[in-house]
Design a protein that fits this description.
alpha+beta, Aminopeptidase, 31% strand
Length: 167
């Protein structure tokens, strides 16, 4: 599914395996990514043929870890263009999550708190990160569970003690 946003004139569409354009953008920006075989989905923002924004999802069962967003805005663009591009990529990822069976989405804040909070992420303890998603660079952890800030420390129907759950 492809869509355009008039304000920035960008086209948004999913990235596909083997994720090369997204991984190259992350490398250009100096951002860490998981190995390509652990990436399940990705979203991109294009300025004509140039990829200028990317967001990647790593999956571990019903949980996912977002990497990015990485946005390279044109030199003449206002800072708001980069922030809104990042928010659009994140909105696409969150729209994808329930249909793909992703119940909880985690991310490292990267100083983008205004985007994470606007779209329903809240700070969560590092101990809540599932074991397969641990050991990655970054500090701080945000979580999203359907956009609800009402969480308990026990996931309904989960065998994992201490897991997060929405009420």
């Amino acid at each position: 599914m492809e869509r355009s946003k008039r304000g920035a004139g960008l086209t948004y569409r999913p990235l596909t395996s083997p994720w090369r354009p997204g991984l190259e953008l992350f490398t250009f920006a100096g951002a860490w990514t998981p190995p390509a075989e652990r990436i399940e989905a990705g979203w991109g923002a294009w300025d004509e043929e140039r990829l200028c924004g990317a967001l990647l999802l790593e999956r571990a069962g019903p949980d996912g870890m977002l990497h990015g967003p990485v946005v390279i805005a044109p030199a003449d663009a206002s800072p708001e263009v980069a922030i809104e591009t990042a928010a659009e990529l994140l909105a696409d990822a969150l729209a994808h999550a329930p249909a793909a069976g992703v119940e909880t989405v985690f991310t490292r804040p990267q100083g983008l708190d205004q985007i994470w909070v606007r779209l329903g992420f809240i700070p969560v303890p590092e101990a809540e990160l599932p074991a397969p998603l641990r050991g990655q660079p970054g500090i701080g952890l945000f979580g999203w569970r359907g956009g609800s800030a009402l969480w308990t420390m026990a996931r309904r129907g989960s065998s994992r003690p201490g897991a997060l759950s929405a009420r």
